[in-house]
Amino acid sequence: MNLTHRPRRLRTDGVRPLVRETELSASDLITPVFVDATIDERVAIQSMPGHERVPLDEIVNRVEEVRETGVEAIMLFGIPQSKDPDGSRAWAEDGVIQEATRRITAETDAYVMTDICLCEYTDHGHCGPLEEGAPEHAHMTVDNDATLPLLQKIAVSHAEAGAEMVAPSGMMDGMVGAIREGLDEAGHTDVSIMAYSAKYQSAFYGPFRDAADGAPSFGDRRHYQMDPANKREALREATLDAEQGADILMVKPALPYLDIVSDLRREFDHPIAAYNVSGEYAMLHAAAEKGWLNLEAVAYESLLSVKRAGADLILTYFAEDLADRL
Ligand code: PBG
To answer: How remote is the CA of residue 201 from the centroid of ligand 1, in Å?
Structure first.
């Protein structure tokens, strides 16, 4: 037997780490945190074991817990005191995110990112005010252009409270440009934008919608989120966001869309983010609970794959568990 090429030579214990192509570290990870204006005590989120909604009075403690694991960045999601058709609590100066952000930035060194969307704040659960004719007409949902100024107001109010990065997730056309303009006009030229560029209309968001109370009361989000069948369209979306000034381009969900992560990595010089969403977290937990998978091993392998596909940063509910180990 005379084999010239024996890839196994580089798999021995001593050399494996030297030839390793991908490294996952705590500094790549962002943990989503839920703050809820309607509760006084922490409430566990059933479908996302280990995660909870926390009241405002617990938010600083919650963020300290995250930082103790080695994760420095958080993405804040809010559940407001009340909802209305336009989602006006989303840009209120005393809104739940604004207040939480002020407390976190005053008392911790965490890097605070905020979700910019209206679905948790509108009484109908869609990501902006409705077009005239909705919901009676099934083809009508969110009024794109009426949503843009609201997104500007939300972003400015978050920046004013101390957010360092805002992440628009509503998939409205022109949202990145509108937010950039709004932030700049208000003097927040240093606040970055992480665009949910390729956000698909995915069934993997199920557990999040329970957690954040943001499920649409009628219809679905197919008129604004992307069709899971489309790949070229993701490049188009990302190009538009890049032109409008996005600092980071995101793909969401992560695991079922690794081809998109890889495409964006190849086509853009921007940092690429991926959102390992609630359903991706829940399914591994469910299988592990049955004893069918080793949770820590599959969580690590999943996130390593997301990095290998080309993501620089990963939003994940596994952040704290994995950071402890990394
Ligand atoms: C709000 C938003 C959603 C998620 C993040 N921001 C829900 C949705 O679009 O329905 C999902 C996150 C997850 O599933 O972990 N627009």
So the answer is: 10
Q: What digits encode the pLDDT tens for the residues 101-140?
A: 999 999 999 999 999 999 999 999 999 999 988 888 887 8
Q: Confidence band (pLDDT; 50, 70, 90) for 305?
A: very high
Report CA-CA distances (Å) from 6 to 1, 16, 18, 71.
Answer: 12, 14, 17, 39
Q: Tens digit of pLDDT for each residue in 148-191?
A: 999 999 999 999 999 999 999 999 999 999 999 999 999 999 99
- Known active-site residue 199: yes
Give the global pTM: 0.96
Q: Report the residue among 119, 126, 251 best suited for mutation to probe ligand 1: largest number of ligand atoms under 8 A from its CB.
A: 119
The residue whose CA is least distant from atom 2 of ligand 1 is 169
CA of 291 to the centre of ligand 1 (A): 28
What number does the ligand 1 atom closest to the CA of 170 have?
16
**Closest among 305, 322, 306 to 314, alpha carbons compared:** 306
H/E element, 307: helix 295-309
Asked if residue 296 lies in contact with residue 2, where contact means CB atoms within 8 angstroms, the answer is: no
290 noted as active-site residue: no
- Residues 46, 286 contacting (CB under 8 angstroms): no
What residues line ligand 1, using a CB cutoff of 6 Å? 115, 117, 119, 127, 169-170, 205, 208-209, 214, 277-278
From ligand 1's centre to the CA of 208, what distance in Å?
6
Cβ atoms of 244 and 197 closer than 8 Å: no
pLDDT in tens, 218-246: 888 999 999 999 999 999 999 999 999 99
> Taking 90 as the threshold, does the pLDDT of residue 324 lie above it?
no
What is the arithmetic mean of pLDDT over 41-67? 97
Domains in the chain, CATH or no CATH each? 24-323 (3.20.20.70)
In angstroms, rounded to a whole number, what is the distance separating the alpha carbons of residues 176 and 194?
A: 9
Beta bridge partners of residue 273, listed in sequence order: 250, 313
